Structure formats: structure tokens, C-alpha cells
Amino acid sequence: MTRDNTFSTSDRRPESLQLEPKPEMTDLKKELLENISDMDKLNSLKEQEIDTLRSSDRELETEISNLQNVNAWVHPDIGISSKAMGIMNSFINDIFEKLAQESSRLARYNKKPTITSREIQTAVRLVLPGELAKHAVSEGTKAVTKFTSS
């Protein structure tokens, strides 16, 4: 400082007190910033998972009521316990997930961006055994035909 209490350019800190970033520190800072970015991505993924869980609760209720409707339609004189309903729901979700994974894999193998009824049909043949696959393909074909004609 000069006598009139102003700073001059000649007033500098000694070399030992200079606050210049060291190269390792900038690398560390970059890494920390990348990790923070990754954490932000992770937090947004967690929020998406929470939203998915919330929507899956609603879907679960819908699936259970759909199963109850099908049961009432097919066997009006027979009820189903909530435990059995939970087992059926788990079974349906498991089969659906396996079919979705297999059809997705088939689309990727064929370098196609879209899963079509052909991939679904092939996935059914790969996932389900023998006669069950034949019936499922037949019913699926019938449903697609009915949907496209209406």
C-alpha cells in the first residue's frame, strides 16, 4: 500500500503467498465436478424410479382389478383370494418382463429401432414352451387382427 491508502501494482504478495491453483487441484476440481454431475444424474434417476414406483402402484391396482374382472367373466361362480391374486399378478409381470426383454434383444440384433408384432411373436416362441407358445401366438394374432380391423 502507498501512503495515501491506495493499492499500487507494485504491492504484491510474496511468491509464497500467491494463490494460484496447482495443476493437481484443477484436475481434482474437474473430477469433483464430474462426480457432482454424476450425483445429479443419480438423483434424477432416483426421482424417476420413485415416480415409476408410484405409477406402478396405480398400475398394480389396475392389473388386479383387471384380473378380478377376467376371473368373474371366465368363472363367475369362483372367487380368488388376495394372496392368489398377488401370485397371479407376479406371474403376469414376470412373463411380461421376459417377453419385453427378449423382444428388445431381437430388435437390437436386427438393428431395428421399433419392436413390432413380429418381434413379440418370436419372443413368445422363445420364452414360452411348446403348446403354450402355439396357443399364445394364435391368440395374439387373433387380437392383432381384431385391433387392426376395427
From TrEMBL:
Nucleus among keywords: yes
GO cellular component: nucleosome; nucleus
GO terms, molecular function: DNA binding; protein heterodimerization activity; structural constituent of chromatin
Keywords, sorted A to Z: Chromosome, DNA-binding, Nucleosome core, Nucleus
Positions with biased composition (Basic and acidic residues): 10-25
SMART domains in UniProt: H2B
Domain Core Histone H2A/H2B/H3: 61-126
Localization in the cell: Chromosome; Nucleus
Alphabetical list of SUPFAM superfamilies matching this protein: Histone-fold (SSF47113)
Disordered: region residues: 1-25
Subunit structure: The nucleosome is a histone octamer containing two molecules each of H2A, H2B, H3 and H4 assembled in one H3-H4 heterotetramer and two H2A-H2B heterodimers. The octamer wraps approximately 147 bp of DNA.
PANTHER family: HISTONE H2B
Family affiliation: Belongs to the histone H2B family.
Function: Core component of nucleosome. Nucleosomes wrap and compact DNA into chromatin, limiting DNA accessibility to the cellular machineries which require DNA as a template. Histones thereby play a central role in transcription regulation, DNA repair, DNA replication and chromosomal stability. DNA accessibility is regulated via a complex set of post-translational modifications of histones, also called histone code, and nucleosome remodeling.
Record-given protein name: Histone H2B
